[in-house]
Specification:
The chain is an alpha/beta fold. It is built from 29 helices and 26 strands. Helix 16 links the parallel strand 12 and strand 13. The longest helix is centred in the middle third of the chain and has 24 residues. Belongs to the CDP-glycerol glycerophosphotransferase family. It is a peripheral membrane protein.
Length: 762
Amino acid sequence: MKFSIITPCKVDDLPKLDELKANLESQTFHQFEWIIACNGFDNHFEETQFPIQVVSYQPNTIGAARNAAIKAAVGDYLVFIDADDFLLPDAMKKLNYMTPRNEDTLIDLNHYKTYETQQAYLKDLAINEHTPDFLPDWGGRKKRKPRSYALNFTSDNLKHLNLNKKQQHWLKNKYKVYSGETRYASLRKQLVLAGKVINRHFVNAHHLQFNELNDLYSDVQFMMAVLNSTKRVVLIQQYQYIMVYHNDPINDPSNAQLVRGDRWQKMVSAWIDGYQNLTNAEFRLAFAEYTIRRMNRYLYNAILSNADSIDNVDATLNIVSKYLNLIDKRAFKSVNVLSRRILSAIADHQFGVAQKLMASLVFGRNAHRIVKKRGRGITKALYQLVFTHLAVKPNVIFYESFLGRNYSDNPKYIYEYIQKHYPGKYQHIWSASDPQVKDALKDQPDTRVVKRFGFKYMYYLATSKYQVFNLRQPRWFVKRRGTKLLSTWHGTPLKRLVFDIDNVVNATPMYKRNFYEQSRQWDYLIAPNQFSADVFSHAFMYPQDKMIKSGYPRNDILSAPDRDQKAIEIKKRLGIPLDKKVILYAPTWRDDERASGNEYKFQLKLNVAKLRENFGDDYVMILRTHYFITDRIDTSTFGDFVFNESNYQDVSELYLASDILITDYSSVFFDYSILKRPILYFVYDYDNYAKILHGFYLSMQKDLPGPLLKTNDEIVDAIKNIDQIEQKYKERYAKFDERFNNWENGHAAEKVVNVLLDNSDK
């Protein structure tokens, strides 16, 4: 047997073994065994192209699991693959070509980090037809791409190059050798166990074992011992090992995501245990320099900020002091002078002096970062260091709608209710990133509009007693004692949210953790219906007893007795002829049309010319795209038939002004259904979009109060026969209305404000 693949597994990780098994079966080379180290796992796998054995271990740690697997292994090489990771299809085949004759050579399959699931990742790889040198974006910065080190030569290309065998081998397999002067040039990556391939006879000859007592860093001491005795590292330059980060660090944290107050102590302890056994002087110094740089970058701020990785500062500094007195002091030269003074003070047990010096160093770094970033960096620093220490103003209410882009949505109607029923009682502060917000509020009493992330924004955000957001508050927001934060949210959910999402590739890597921490600051969350309350309770992990079950304030105008008069006023404001009916087209964004981050392009697939041809005498159309869509669609060629109101501040007013809604996968139809007007679903890409329909809370086929239409001809026919459509979907519409609108009685703003202000000063 050539290879022994070793996978430690906790009981919680057992479902992931099925995916890893399928991944190993998909390999184009199968001369390996798979050893699963797991207590309490009854091997249910059927026979496959490679043997599988399960081993148990004691104590119940990852280190003990790996040691037990090594004892059971019979392959010439040990390949370490974690349960939630996977390999590219040709990884084992490439590895077979790469195995050297020398036992003291470490092979690295080159790991690539992602937050995507294996299924989503490989699907993206296939759909986008990446060449082997390129992989999909990971879950971090959207513009970050893995580097390409080599050209994709084929066998036919090589025939005409007259290369020797060594050159051909390199071009086929593309690897990089770290030896001699470059031996420890990439030490951070070399110390990671995942994807490493080590000669089993080498491991046994050097009596290498994992630390069975350090439950966080059992592999550190092992990899230190490996690097101490190996002479070279062969790195396959095309990423073959895909390391999947857990995308739910709250409910399913990986070992690295566990909140542990002894994390720094465990890590430094592993360094000490490993360092004491190092015999290679060059590696001793390289490792010491690596750890010194790591402490310089992360330790000081963790200590000063009371990070969750440090419960006991003195205990942490004591073990760091022990390590610093063990290592070669030449390593101190790898950091700046002030950091050297800090390390020397820690080594001498002058912890008070060290912490004062840390404060100076961290302050200098923050100041440098502020100067470098300018703008928001300075205002954010003032918010954190100055404004949050000022007195809270009990009569100030802070509002933000859609990141300051609009004067709209629930915050608008909460504000207007308070203005009407508590005149002169409160000072109102509106966040604005768009001039339209200031224009909309320029004549309002007791109201101030502040530039988002400007000095005044930071001041009022820090000192206001009440904050009202329809999206999440800034991640660095400080919840102060005596203040109230209301999350209005912005719609009944159709697509799955946060903790109900398996794959968070279209969000930041820490999306779920950030959302969880931010939502813990909410004093209240508005629920527009019981369906939403139930979804929010598991999707946000937010308790229902803290929800305001009221309906949405923004929908009050849809049930208002004067809504018909308001509709006329809105039409006049927009210049829409009063003798014409209005079709509102409100499509959402598509996942596969992303421009960058949370910004998307949109291709207009609705045949507007055909609609104008058929209905231009009786109708006009309002186009309203999602705020994620960055490009303004040119509708000038359609003359006075189309009113492009994508930048219109308040979509609720557009609902009032319209007679028919055409939408797709947008959740706008939930609110629109309050009007009891017809809804058509133009789902031209339904077959392609169906791959994510499992990510919806509703069945589009069974639950929606209108027809699913895939072609422009079907749209035209539906509008021509809109009365028959209404009749056909009358019963389903009634059920939908009962399920989602029974709280919408026109008094939502009143209910919300009474809770927010406690009705104590009415």
